[in-house]
Structures are given as structure tokens and as C-alpha cells.
Design goal:
Number of strands: 6
Structural class: mainly alpha
Strand order of the largest sheet: 1-2
Number of helices: 15
Oligomer: single chain
Order of helices and strands: EEEEHHHHHHHHHEHHHHHEH
CATH topology of the largest domain: Growth Hormone, Chain: A
């Protein structure tokens, strides 16, 4: 991505003066085009925020209503999403980065995951009826009415998390691909404001009666998300991306090829990092990684409302989704260079983001 072209270099239109052009990769926007882009993206993000604010809260309410223990709630909300994300997130991100098609490299994954999420939300809406039917059909072999309902809720919640992980793995990348770099901060500020507004709307008008109107809440939020997010995907256009270099088939078939490919992908970054005292750097990096990751482990296992909420922010899935490993590594390099009285001092530089991308 490049900064907007200076006004002095732009052609003038008679009667209008020079225009300001914004660029994101091969995409170019006038101010009016940028406003349209923001409207579509924010519309999709509002639908996303309504889903994120409403669905997890309502599912937790149903789990409590049908007798789920704190352990079960903690596993479903604190352990299951990170377990899915830590394996599925990197795969989807890798496939998306290398995909080339008429719809771009992000939109196809968002379009494919949206109906799956809507189907899962509809399944959550009718889980009590599905569980009751399963209980009646199994007869004496049933585990009971409430456990049958909880199993149905758990299965559809897992399907919902699969779709959410897929979409979440590429949604932020789509924004980074189509929004000009100088405006990313402003966009995320607007997105955060919309997310808070979505929370206010749901908590004020819908949450109070959620225990009796949960079916309509699920169906309504599923419709908002399915329609809103699909409209956004159909109206946001990605630019063109350079072709990916072909993979070395011979090397892929040899043992350890995956590790070599990973090392090669990190080499442009690590080439720019010049630490002095490697052992100390890696020890500090591992220490920071443990400090960032460990708070989520007891939360995911112990369950409970507080631990479930905290594990959504401090969990193993964050290692992939939020770059905790990268933060720990960079913090280790930083500490290695600034430890007072230590012989291990160094300098580290990050390569230009465009060169890495």
C-alpha cells in the first residue's frame, strides 16, 4: 500500500481543481469512492457486531436455563473456540493468501462461511425442539431431556464457531487489502464505535426478554448477519494481487518440507533482525509467550462466567489470531537490548511490511 498521491501530481479537471486520490494496492479511490467503501464495510461490520454481541450471550443464557454446569460452559466458550482457531485459523489464512480468483482472495471465504453461520444460528434457535425430539425418539436410551438439548446446543455452537473462525481469519485481512493504509486507524475507530452501538441496541431492546424470545433473537440476528454480510461482500471489490510463486513439488514430498517452508517464509523478517546474544533473546521471548498465554489456560479448564469471559481474550487461540507469538518475540528482542547491566545487548529492525507481504 502506498500513501495518497500528492495533489500537485494529479490532473486537474476544469472547474473542479485537483482531486485527491487514495490508493490501496492496485485500488484507487476518490473521496466519494472512499465514502462508499466505508459505508459498505461498516454495514457489514455492523451485521458482524450484532452477531457477536447477541449470539454468545443468548447461548450462555440457554445453557444456564437447561442446566449446563460451569465446566461445560467454560469448555464450550473458553476451550472449544481456541481449539478450533489454533488449527483452522492458520490453514484458512494460508489458503486465502495464496488464492487467486475473480472475486479476490478474501471475499470467497467470507461468502462461503456466511450461510454456514446462518445455518448454525438457525440450529441454535431450534435446539430445544431438536433436543426434545431426540429425547423422545431415543426413548429409554436417552440421557434425559435437558442433556439432549445441551448436546444439540453444543453441536450447533461448534458449527457456528467453525464458520466464525473462517470468517474472522480473513475479515481483517480484507480490510487491510482494500482500505488505504493512512485511513486504517480511522476505519477501525468507526468500527469500534459501531460495535459499541450494536451492543447498546441489543442490551437495551432485546436482552431483557431473551429467555422467552430467544428463537426470534436467533432468527433475527441470523437474517441481519446473513443478508448484511453478503451484501457487503458483493459490493466491496478487491484489487489485483501478484501471482504466487509455484511450490517446489520435490521438496514438499520430503520429510520436514513444511518446516523448511515455514522458515523460508520468515526469512525476510528474520534477515532484518540482528540480535546479539541469541540464547538470551529466545529465553526472554519464551517467557513473554508464557506470560501472555498462561492466563487463558485455567480459564478454559475451570469454567465459570468470569473465567469464560476472560478466556475469550486470553486463550490459546490468541496465539494465532492476535499475533501473541510475534508480540512475545519482539518483546524478547526489546528486553534483550535494554537490560541494564547485561552483556546481552542488540539491535533489531523489522523489514518493511510491503516487502514482507
Amino acid at each position: 500500500m502506498t500513501a495518497p498521491v500528492p495533489d500537485a501530481e494529479l490532473p486537474e479537471i476544469p472547474g473542479e481543481g485537483p482531486r485527491k486520490i487514495w490508493r490501496a494496492g492496485t485500488l484507487t479511490y476518490t473521496t466519494a469512492g472512499l465514502v462508499v467503501l466505508f459505508c459498505w464495510l461498516l454495514w457489514g461490520d455492523f451485521a458482524w457486531s450484532m452477531k457477536d454481541r447477541a449470539i454468545p450471550q443468548t447461548v450462555q443464557l440457554l445453557l444456564k436455563k437447561f442446566g449446563a454446569s460451569d465446566m461445560v460452559t467454560g469448555l464450550l466458550f473458553g476451550s472449544l473456540p481456541p481449539a478450533i482457531g489454533i488449527f483452522l485459523g492458520p490453514i484458512i489464512g494460508y489458503k486465502s493468501d495464496r488464492h487467486r480468483g475473480r472475486w479476490g482472495r478474501r471475499i470467497p471465504f467470507l461468502l462461503l462461511s456466511t450461510p454456514v453461520a446462518v445455518l448454525a444460528i438457525a440450529g441454535l434457535a431450534f435446539s430445544p425442539k431438536i433436543g426434545a425430539y431426540a429425547h423422545k425418539w431415543l426413548g429409554p436410551h436417552s440421557w434425559g431431556l435437558d442433556p439432549s438439548i445441551l448436546i444439540s446446543l453444543g453441536l450447533f455452537w461448534m458449527l457456528f464457531e467453525f464458520a466464525t473462525v473462517v470468517a474472522n481469519s480473513v475479515n481483517g485481512a480484507l480490510i487491510n487489502d482494500v482500505v488505504p493504509q493512512p485511513l486504517l486507524g480511522r476505519f477501525y475507530g468507526l468500527f469500534r464505535a459501531l460495535s459499541l452501538i450494536a451492543g447498546i441496541i441489543f442490551n437495551h431492546w432485546f436482552w431483557g426478554d431473551a429467555d422467552t424470545t430467544y428463537v426470534w433473537i436467533f432468527l433475527g440476528m441470523g437474517a441481519i448477519y446473513g443478508i448484511g454480510f453478503t451484501i457487503m461482500c458483493l459490493n466491496v471489490k478487491e484489487g489485483e494481487y501478484p501471482p504466487q510463486p509455484p511450490m517446489d513439488a520435490g521438496r514438499n514430498n520430503r520429510g520436514g518440507g513444511g518446516h523448511r517452508r515455514t522458515g523460508e517464509s520468515l526469512r525476510p523478517l528474520l534477515r532484518q533482525v540482528r540480535p546479539y546474544g541469541h540464547d538470551n533473546v529466545w529465553q526472554l521471548s519464551c517467557a513473554h509467550l508464557l506470560l501472555l498465554a498462561l492466563p487463558g489456560l485455567p480459564a478454559g479448564l475451570a469454567g465459570g462466567p468470569v473465567s469464560s469471559a476472560s478466556s475469550r481474550h486470553w486463550d490459546i487461540g490468541s496465539l494465532c489470531d492476535r499475533g501473541v507469538v510475534g508480540r512475545a518475540l519482539c518483546q524478547g528482542f526489546t528486553d534483550a537490548g535494554h537490560r541494564i547491566g547485561s552483556p546481552w545487548r542488540g539491535q533489531w529492525y523489522l523489514a518493511d511490511r510491503d516487502a514482507i507481504a
